[in-house]
Specification:
Blueprint: E1 6-10, E2 14-20, H1 23-34, H2 49-61, E3 65-72, E4 75-83, E5 100-107, H3 117-130, E6 137-140, H4 147-155, E7 159-166, E8 169-177, H5 178-184
Helix pairs in contact: 1-2
Length: about 190
């Protein structure tokens, strides 16, 4: 398995890390995640295993889109996608600036939720994105009805820019600068 490209330690929850998705090797795992009822906003509810593998192979081949398995203490626990908003997802509704990066994330379904886990996941995702020196702002486009992710986005510094219409429906185009993220974490952005 590929070594993690990024890792961080959460004081009470342990280690979080990211490694690239292996489309063939991770297809079964990802199929279980993206077709679970909790992943309704991922819009792959009816996808079969072959379709999931094909989707992640497409992402793997795309120079403007990447997918990563998130590990919690070494165990796959979440998915992150990053994309270039000048070329993918929001090109019709967002004028990308230098340093913009787009993101999606999904936590794996579980029967034993851990308090603070999803906030630790999105914080890990944001840490990883801002670990790249060229990243100035993260762009997301969650569905208007996805209230749980709106609260998480706000907790890490995202601000809703406006409501937009995308092929998947109405969404909140939201952005978070490095300074907004650091401020949300209680760190001095200067």
């Amino acid at each position: 398995m590929t070594a993690p490209l990024f890792s961080r330690t959460h004081a009470s929850l342990g280690e979080f890390a990211l490694r690239p998705v292996d489309p063939a090797g991770d297809a079964e795992l990802l199929h279980g995640w993206v077709t679970h009822p909790k992943a309704v906003y991922w819009m792959m509810q009816d996808a079969d295993l072959a379709a999931v593998e094909a989707e992640f192979a497409r992402i793997d081949a795309d120079p403007y889109h990447d997918a990563f398995i998130g590990l919690h203490n070494g165990v796959p626990a979440f998915l992150m996608e990053r994309y270039d908003p000048a070329h993918r997802e929001v090109t019709e509704v967002h004028e990308a600036a230098p340093g913009d990066i787009g993101m999606h994330f999904l936590t794996a379904p579980t029967d034993t939720p851990v308090h603070g886990f999803t906030l630790a996941v999105i914080t890990t995702v944001m840490d990883a994105l801002f670990a790249e020196p060229g990243t100035r702002r993260v762009v997301v486009e969650p569905a208007v009805g996805n209230t749980a992710v709106h609260a998480l986005n706000k907790a890490v510094g995202f601000e809703i820019e406006r409501t937009v219409t995308l092929p998947k429906g109405e969404a909140y185009l939201s952005t978070c600068t490095r300074d907004q993220f650091l401020a949300a974490r209680g760190e001095n952005p200067c």
